[in-house]
Amino acid sequence: MHLYLIRHGETDWNSQGRIQGHTDTPLNARGIAQAQQLATRFADESLDALYASPLARARATAEIVAQKIGAQVICDERLKEKGIGELEGLTAEEFRERHPDLYAAWHHSTTRVDLPGEESILVFQQRIQTFLEDVRARHSHDARIALVTHGGTLGMLIATAAGFDTTKRLPFWFDNASVSWVEIGNARPRVRLLNDRCHLNEK
User: Fold this and answer.
1) Which of 21, 46, 61, 140 could form a disulfide with 8 if both were Cys (CB 3.0 to 4.6 A apart)?
2) Phi first, then psi: what are they for 168, rounded to 5°?
């Protein structure tokens, strides 16, 4: 099975460096343009399914792609971003000012640091695990599936598929409207592409 992992286009909170989590922020003008370029990239791809997080920034990105390729968007709650609790809406600098000790621990630690009110890593990982299991059961072994979701969710998808230790902080970064590609077979999964932005006409 081929999984194309797509991060949503830019929002104003992305451009301001604000933590989004479950907060439902829309695409901005640049994000819409990025989604249109994603759609052009996938215009000649034969996709068996297109899944998306129901949060507006991911759903709108997926809908723009779907309109171009003639697909239907399947929204799944399990593809939502990890909830970050009380820190949602803050910039990194605001996080540092309000919670200096917690920020220092989060900034320097290689293991996960509990944040106030956040979704637990166990709950997050389990919902991603069940989603992957359902997709594999629903589609053939050679299916081509696109998932439009969020940076944290993309990292957890790859980590879960590859069997990483999710109690540790993951080394991934995903830019807005980037594409990654994971091939899941009967043996080990293969990461064929990571955070690719070649389709974006941006400097």
Assistant:
1) 61
2) -100, 155
Tell me what percent of the chain is helix, strand and coil, each rounded to the nearest 5: 40, 20, 40
pLDDT beneath 50, residues of the chain: none
Place of tokens 């064929």: 192
Global confidence as pTM? 0.95
| Beta strands 144-149 and 49-52, pairing class | parallel
- Residues annotated catalytic, as ranges: 8, 150
pLDDT single digits (tens) 130-159: 999 999 999 999 999 999 999 999 999 999
Which residues in 91-114 are b (16+ Cβ under 10 Å) and which e? eeeebeeebeebbeebeeeeeeee
Give the burial class of 130: count Cβ atoms within 10 A of its Cβ; 0-12 exposed, 13-18 middle, 19 or more buried: exposed
Q: What are the structure tokens assigned to 185, written together?
A: 């077979």
pLDDT digits (tens, 9 = 90+) for 174-187: 999 999 999 998 77
Tokens of 132: 């992957």
